[in-house]
Structure formats: structure tokens, C-alpha cells
Amino acid sequence: MTLKKITLIALALIWILSLAVLIIALTDLFPDTIYKNYRLVLGIGFLTLTGFIRIAYKKLIKIER
Questions:
Q1: Does the pLDDT of residue 59 top 80, yes or no?
Q2: How far is CA 35 from the centre of its chain?
Q3: Buried (b) or exposed (e) across 51-65, using 16+ Cβ within 10 A?
Q4: Distance between CA atoms of 52 and 45, rounded to whole angstroms?
Q5: Which of 22, 23, 13 is closest to 41 using CA atoms?
Q6: How confident is the model at residue 65 (pLDDT cuts 50, 70, 90)?
Q7: Does 64 have pLDDT greater than 70?
Q8: What is the rounded distance in angstroms from the CA atom of residue 60 to the CA atom of residue 5?
Q9: What is the pLDDT of residues 31-53, one digit of tens each?
Q10: Cα–Cα 20 to 30 A to 7, which of 16, 44, 50, 62?
Q11: Taking phi first (over 0 means left), then psi (-120 to 50 degrees means alpha), and beta for anything else, what does residue 56 get?
Q12: Which residues 6+ apart lie within 8 Å of 44 measured at CB?
């Protein structure tokens, strides 16, 4: 595996884990979570993380071509 593929896989795993945390915070699947009080911060953080991952993905794909 190349370093680019490993980086893309790591970014995807980070994004999936942050999506899972966001889903737990926004729904009442687990009623007494610590994320419940920080829903707005988690939502903004998820959007920011998604933007940074998008930029990194575009740079990695551009380098690969």
C-alpha cells in the first residue's frame, strides 16, 4: 500500500468516527451521554472536519494524477 492510500483510509475512518459521535449527540439513542450538552459545538466541528478532509482529499488526488 502506498502512503496516499493509507492517508485516505485514515481520513475516512476519522470522518466515520466523527459522524458516529455526531449521530449519538443529535439523537437520543443513549440518553445520558456527555455529548448532549455540546451538540452545537459537535455539529460545527463536524462541518469543519469535513471541509478539511475535502481539501486534503482534493490535494491527494491532484498529486496522484
A1: yes
A2: 16
A3: eebeeeeeeeeeeee
A4: 11
A5: 22
A6: low
A7: no
A8: 9
A9: 888 888 889 999 999 999 999 99
A10: 44
A11: alpha
A12: none
